[in-house]
Amino acid sequence: MGYPVGYTELLLPRIFLHLLSLLGLIRTLIDTGFRILGLPDFLESDPVSSSSSWPEPPSMSTAAHHHQESSFFFPVAARLAGKILPVIRFSELNRPGFGSGSDCCAVCLHEFENEDKIRRLTNCQHIFHRSCLDRWMMGYNQMTCPLCRTPFIPDELQVAFNQRVWSESELLAEST
C-alpha cells in the first residue's frame, strides 16, 4: 500500500516565488515610468555603495537638455539655492575641529575626505557632501538643513530670493 505522495508543502513556496517575481516586475515598471517622466529616482536600486561618496547628480545643463519641456524637473527655488550655497573642497575648509577624520556627512554617513566637494550652509554652518545636499534640494525639494531645519537662504536675502524665484518661474511659464 504505502503512503499517498503529496507535495503540497512545495505549493506555498512556488506561489511565494511567483508573487515576488510579479512584485519585482511591477517595481521595474514604476521605476521606468518615473525615469520617462523625469522624476527623481524614488526606487533606489543600489543603496549606498562602498565608495566614499554618492555619484554626482546630473548637471543642470544635461537635465535641461533632456527635459526642456519639463519645467519642473529641477524646482526653480532649488536651482537658485544651489547657485547661492558655496561649493568647496573639504581640505579648503578652515574651521577648528574639522579634519580630525571623525567628521561625517549626516545624510550619507560617509566620512569626509580631503578631495570631497562639500556645501557649507551659510545660516547654520553645517557641511554636507555636494551630491548629498543637491539630492536633498533638487530630488526632494527641501529648502532647509537636513540636520537642524534652518532655511538655506538667510533671512536678509529671503525677499530678494523669492522675487527671483517668481521671475524665473514666469519666464519658464512663458517659454512653454
TrEMBL record:
Family annotation (InterPro entries): Znf_RING (IPR001841)
Keywords from the UniProt entry: Metal-binding, Zinc, Zinc-finger
GO biological process, one term: protein ubiquitination
GO molecular function: ubiquitin protein ligase activity; zinc ion binding
The keyword Transcription regulation is annotated on this UniProt entry: no
Coiled coil residues, start to end: none
PANTHER family (UniProt xref): RING ZINC FINGER PROTEIN-RELATED
Protein name: Zinc finger RING-type
Source organism of the structure: Arabidopsis suecica
